[in-house]
């Protein structure tokens, strides 16, 4: 039995889709979710749905009963992630889970990004747990940019603080497939994979791609981190998260979100999805 946490989230749902497309029977998959009533579509496919709330340890050990392998999709609640992940690891150990596959951050232990801190703590907790595990250090999602494409087209600009730093992005589906491979095939325990896109781009190049594919003029406007943070808050992001995103851009300007690693290609058996294809799909 394979359990995927956060299974109604964007990444978790794609991991389950990839497991099924790769031949894992639906009745061998468990969807761990905070709100089971929101997972009717998964239940309708013959997938068992169990309540597994990162913040409620009492739900976790029962959820993991009979589970041999677990995909721990990192929590989206920045600032609470480490304690939530520790709850999952503790419950997995108690339940006798034989492999945890965790979605971390690219070059986590060397990363200057604020986002890296809780991932480093989780990787340490996994090491201390004694539970066999594989760590998937994901780079940036292409969707971090393409989901805001409408705003870029409306204003004729992509905003950021990354200067000419490169982003080796891949799609959520690419990373989900890597997680499905790692949890459903042999030989991944003890491995740390640096997962980065097959091709990389600067935000200047990204704006050029958007211009070419949309036939609308779009430029990249680089801003000081403080100004970028203020703009993100103005468009509705929480202050803390806005600061994290601006910090990530500053880190990217120094190479924190770039790698020439081929681990992602190796796991999924193909190049990752080019950013141009992601832009076309949204357009």
Please name the defining characteristics of this protein.
9 strands; globular; Rossmann fold; 45% helix; alpha/beta; 14% strand; seven-stranded parallel β-sheet
What this model shows, in words?
The mean pLDDT is 97. The chain has a domain at 2-138 and 172-195 and 260-268: 3-Layer(aba) Sandwich (Rossmann fold). The N and C termini lie far apart (39 Å). The strands form 2 sheets. The protein has a 7-stranded parallel beta sheet, with helices on both faces. By secondary structure, it is of the alpha/beta class. It has helices at 10-21, 40-43, 57-63, 81-95, 116-129, 143-146, 149-155, 172-184, 203-214, 225-234, 239-253, 263-268, 275-282, and strands spanning 2-4, 29-33, 48-51, 69-72, 99-105, 133-138, 157-160, 192-195, 219-222.
Mean pLDDT: 97
Helix percent reads 40-55%
CATH architecture of the domain at 2-138 and 172-195 and 260-268: 3-Layer(aba) Sandwich
CATH C-level name of the domain at 2-138 and 172-195 and 260-268: Alpha Beta
The CATH homologous superfamily of the domain at 2-138 and 172-195 and 260-268 is termed NAD(P)-binding Rossmann-like Domain
Number of strands: 9
Distance N to C terminus: 39 Å
Q: Main sheet: which strands, in order across? A: 3-2-1-4-5-6-8
The parts where pLDDT drops under 50 for at least 5 residues are none
Number of helices: 13
SS-based structural class? Answer: alpha/beta
Outline the biggest β-sheet.
Answer: 7 strands, parallel
Rg, alpha carbons: 19 Å
Strand content: 5-15%
CATH fold-level assignment of the domain at 2-138 and 172-195 and 260-268: Rossmann fold
Give the overall form.
globular
Elements, N to C (H/E): EHEHEHEHEHEHHEHEHEHHHH
InterPro entries: NAD(P)-bd_dom, NAD(P)-bd_dom_sf, NmrA-type_oxidoreductase
Domain NAD(P)-binding: 6-181
Protein name: NAD(P)H dehydrogenase (Quinone)
